[in-house]
Design a protein that fits this description.
The protein has 377 residues and is mainly alpha-helical. The protein is 70% helix and 2% strand. β2 and β3 form a beta hairpin. It comes from Roseibium limicola.
Length: 377
């Protein structure tokens, strides 16, 4: 039996989560995941998945078009750099507002339907956005080349614009690359987690769960679910837009590929892998997928030969050949096998496994305590 969440417990979870995020360069070092670029992706896509989970996890509305907001946030952030300067704060703020408005437009239409029809509508809007960015709105998006900051851009509030300063995002004189860039992204991840936690525990979150539980019954009581679903759709889109802005803050380049359906599918996998409707699950799922993408994809035949060098020469060749199918360009195969195992054995994702282990430990401790305190016959 799980205990009900309390303010004290939520505070403890938040403090532990914030400490874990801020110390990631330390405890991820043993598995080779402590370099800044990968840490930035952990934080950015963890934020993206957290926002998506607010929609899918609480209401059950499965969006296949969230990459559209990721792309809108990216383009808005780069235009913020081009027009205002290389300060990341205005760029992030502009991305949040723009993606929120874009999400309101898409949500206003898409939420007239539910189930698979809603999913198909969001996918259609995302593909339309991708094609607009790739070929139609080239004066704004620069098409297939991608949008980037140029020395000739106005950057009206950037004092280094006239002196040919570096075209990197800078806050208080600190370039948002490397570990400073990670901690900037980590700050937003922690704040995003706090907001999501508050939404989960709020009456608003309760209404969203009611939508997921039985929307028809909610309609019969006289409550209109559309304002609630539209509000969370906009909030989720703002999370995605902020994640897109952070991608450009750490690397000032926006491309249409971020709006493809594969990017939307990736955040769905992250959420399901970690645990739909949980606070920590989508962040764990995002971390696992990005780790596989960046670590396992870098393995090649020479690295595998070094790893299995302890084997006899007769076995080393076949083992390297078989292992090579699951790493390098075949890392998706490893991810697919992992995803199948999780879905079959743990339908609730990784967090279900964590919950089972916790229950087993508590159950074992309780039985041991009862045995020790039992009166002697």
């Amino acid at each position: 039996m799980t205990s009900n969440p309390t303010p004290t417990r939520d505070l403890a979870v938040f403090v532990i989560f914030a400490a874990a995020v801020l110390t990631m360069p330390i405890w991820l070092a043993p598995i080779g995941a402590a370099y800044p670029d990968l840490l930035q992706k952990f934080a950015i896509y963890g934020l993206f998945a957290t926002g998506f989970n607010l929609l899918f996890g609480l209401t059950g509305y499965l969006s296949f078009g969230h990459a559209a907001f990721l792309g809108v946030g990216s383009y808005t952030a780069v235009w913020g750099f081009k027009l205002l300067g290389m300060n990341p704060v205005p760029a992030a703020a502009m991305a949040i507002v723009t993606s929120g408005l874009f999400a309101w437009l898409i949500g206003y239409v898409s939420l007239r339907r539910s189930g698979i029809y809603f999913s198909i509508l969001t996918l259609a809007f995302a593909q339309m956005s991708y094609n607009l960015a790739y070929s139609v709105l080239t004066p704004i998006t620069n098409g297939e080349t991608g949008l980037r900051v140029l020395q000739s851009d106005p950057r009206i509030f950037d004092t280094a614009a006239q002196s040919g300063g570096p075209l990197v995002s800078t806050l208080f004189g600190i370039e948002m690359s490397g570990y400073p860039g990670f901690y900037f992204c980590a700050t937003f991840l922690i704040l995003g987690f706090l907001v999501a936690q508050r939404i989960f525990r709020s009456p608003f979150g309760t209404m969203l769960r009611a939508v997921k539980s039985n929307q028809n019954r909610m309609n019969y009581t006289g409550l209109n679910p559309r304002p609630y679903t539209l509000a969370v759709f906009v909030i989720s889109g703002m999370y995605a837009g902020l994640a897109g802005a952070l991608l450009c803050i750490t690397d000032p380049l926006a491309g249409a590929e971020r709006m493809q359906w594969t990017a939307s599918g990736e955040v769905v996998l992250m959420t399901i892998l970690g645990g739909v409707g949980t606070l920590l699950g989508p962040i764990l799922g995002a971390g696992i997928i990005k780790y596989f993408e960046n670590i396992f994809s870098a393995f090649n035949e020479h690295i595998l030969q070094d790893i299995f060098s302890f084997l006899p020469e007769a076995l080393q060749g076949p083992v390297v050949s078989i292992s090579g199918l699951f790493v390098g360009e075949g890392w998706h195969l490893t991810l697919g096998v992992l995803f199948m195992i999780i879905v079959i054995l743990l339908p609730g994702g990784i967090m279900e496994g964590v919950g089972r282990i916790t229950s087993m430990v508590k159950g074992g401790s309780r039985k041991k305590h009862q045995h020790q305190t039992a009166p002697a016959e």
